[in-house]
Write a structure and sequence with these properties.
CATH topology of the largest domain: Immunoglobulin-like
CATH class of the largest domain: Mainly Beta
CATH architecture of the largest domain: Sandwich
Largest sheet: 4 strands, antiparallel
Strand content: 35-45%
Length: 139
């Protein structure tokens, strides 16, 4: 009977060993990532003249919180939810006079959203990387 040559067997054994080593290293790299630390800050949510206003009162800055493009918002590290659903703002949002650009949400920053809030609505502000609820306000 004929079997596999020793060269083929050696190559297969070496391939199996390298695959197991790669899986082990990949698992170790994934586990060594430090968990995201929760932020220490105060966020206030208000309904002002038919607009939703999110204010960063004091504390840690949220880098790359969201991106504005002509008043439309793409949430990045911060998300605002109304009744559990992420707000979809397609225009009219602003931070001061800024309507376009990446926003680092820090102390004194005020995000104005063209969103109506009615009695019984719940607004939640979440820091996405840590899954941390920063503010929850029922109107």
């Amino acid at each position: 009977m004929r079997g596999l040559s020793t060269l083929i067997g050696t190559i297969l054994l070496l391939g199996l060993t390298l695959t197991l080593f790669a899986v082990y290293i990949w698992g170790m790299v994934g586990k060594s990532a430090a968990p995201v630390q929760p932020l220490q800050l105060v966020i206030r949510v208000e309904n002002v003249e038919g607009e939703l206003v999110v204010r960063h009162v004091v504390g840690d800055e949220i880098p790359k919180a969201f991106k504005l493009y002509n008043g439309a918002i793409t949430w990045v590290n911060l998300v605002v939810r109304k009744n559990g659903e992420n707000l979809r703002v397609t225009g009219g949002a602003r931070v001061g006079n800024l309507t376009t650009g990446m926003v680092d949400f820090g102390p004194g920053t005020k995000l104005e959203l063209p969103v109506s809030v009615e009695r019984g609505d719940t607004i939640t502000v979440v820091y996405v990387p840590a899954g941390q609820t920063l503010c929850e306000q029922k109107f």
